[in-house]
Amino acid sequence: MLEIGAYHKMIIDRDVSPGLYLRNEEEDEVLLPGKYAPENFKLEDSIEVFVYLDNEERPVATTLKPFIEKNGFAFLRCTAVTGIGAFVDWGLDKELLVPYSNQMTPMKAGQSYVVYLYLDEKSNRLVGSTKTPQFTDNDNIEVQKFDKVDLLVSHYSDHGANVIINGKHMGLVFKDSIFEDLRVGDKLPGYIKWVRDDKKIDVVLQPEGYKGIEPNTKYIMDELQANGGKLMLSDKSKPEDIQAQLGISKKSFKKAIGVLYKEREIVIEEDKIVLNTKK
After folding, report:
1. CA–CA–CA angle 269, 272, 275 (5° rounding)
2. Domains plus CATH for the chain?
3. Which residues contact 148 (CB under 8 A, 6 or more apart)?
4. Cβ 142 vs Cβ 171: under 8 Å
5. For 208-221, what is each residue's pLDDT tens digit?
6. Is the pTM of this model over 0.70?
């Protein structure tokens, strides 16, 4: 099946006056207009194309790379507002429609918005929506505390910046933890601070806890896990013993296990440290 709004690997089947007809393994065909045809090609060559609908709502292929794919989010500029909705530039000849019913707030030409692209089942057309939260899923959360994630700033609220996490979940960066110029549409890395019982996700822009202090805390955690959850060293161990076993100074060791203890990752005993299995 030729999926609309997605990339496909296809075979150049035949050369005709409008362009190249391509086929896939299921023998589905689509036209690649001549202006997108590669300069040098042979029949039966493989080519990657993006398939969408042309102005007459027929499937058509292009070698252009759109700014957004189906079931994805992107920050797109509104080029015009008409009687049926707003149009945004998504990198292809035919602009993407965002119907009025899909607009969180009325869109204005010249301004940019975070848009979600999906295939409308009733019309079988690709359409956009700025009502981004309804296209995220916080019921089946695939991230956990300390994970490094990809963020897209969706919108601001009284509490801070609402962000889309890994293109799937909605999270919040509280305003008292924002120390940089953060704008709607920005893409940047972030870190999961907390996944709440009510499925809300707190996000920070800098790593927190033991994973934010590299390399010693992570190194010690790796050593603990490799040694059955136990290391025969403590804050009272001799510097030479710590150096011999881990290759780091006692000062660095104490700083690292202090952070791990505060984060409830370990228990410090008289002569050893162990992983905390009761946190």
Report:
1. 80
2. 6-62 (2.40.50.330), 72-133 (2.40.50.140), 148-207 (2.40.50.140), 211-275 (1.10.10.10)
3. 189, 190, 191, 207
4. no
5. 655 555 568 888 98
6. yes
